[in-house]
Amino acid sequence: MERLRKRSDFLAAGKGPRAPTPAFVLQMLRRGDEDAPRVGLTVSRKVGTATERNRARRRLREMVRLSGADVLQPGHDYVLIARRSALEHPFERLMADLRGAVRRAGRDSGSTGRDSGATGRGGGSSSRESGPSDKRTAR
Question: Residue 85: inside a domain, yes or no?
């Protein structure tokens, strides 16, 4: 199992299917090869102080280490975005949530990802795209 290191790899995984859980959000991307799975962790300042962020990171890293070979599929990139509840969540529940999240994200990977819909942040048009200059020329 390898680590994701480049920002572009994290951003690419963010375009794939997501599986939210109470303690983290899993983002997944199929790379198209059969190399070892790569995993990246994101723990923002919303999670807490530096000590709390480090503890959340250690818990997620250990969860991936213990269940990685059984759960994570070769040829995929995974990004785990920690939530504050990762600090208190029972560890056995974290492990079960990871298995369920990988299964849900794998089921959703048949779709085109988050950019497929016309609603939300991925795709479609918003009122910001047509500025005031468009209204003047439309008369």
Answer: yes
Total domains present in the chain: 1
Question: Tokens 């009122």 identify what position?
Answer: 127
User: In CATH, what number is assigned to the domain containing residue 43?
Assistant: 3.30.230.10
Q: How many CB atoms lie within 10 A of CB 34?
A: 9
List per-block mean pLDDT (blocks of 10 residues) for the chain, which spans 139 residues: 91 93 94 90 96 96 88 92 95 94 80 43 46 50
From the CB of residue 66, how many other CB atoms can be counted at a distance below 10 Å?
Answer: 14
Specify if 83 maps to a domain.
yes
Count other C-beta atoms under 10 Å from residue 25's C-beta: 16
Q: How many CB atoms lie within 10 A of CB 5?
A: 10
Report the amino acid identity of residue 132: P
- Give pTM, 2 decimals: 0.74
For residue 84, which of 51, 63, 56, 112 has the smallest C-alpha distance? 56
Contact of 45 with 84, CB cutoff 8 Å: no
Give dist(CA 20, CA 106) in Å, integer.
13
Which amino acid type is present at position 135?
Answer: K
Question: Does residue 84 form part of some domain?
Answer: yes
Pairing of strands 18-20, 76-82: unpaired
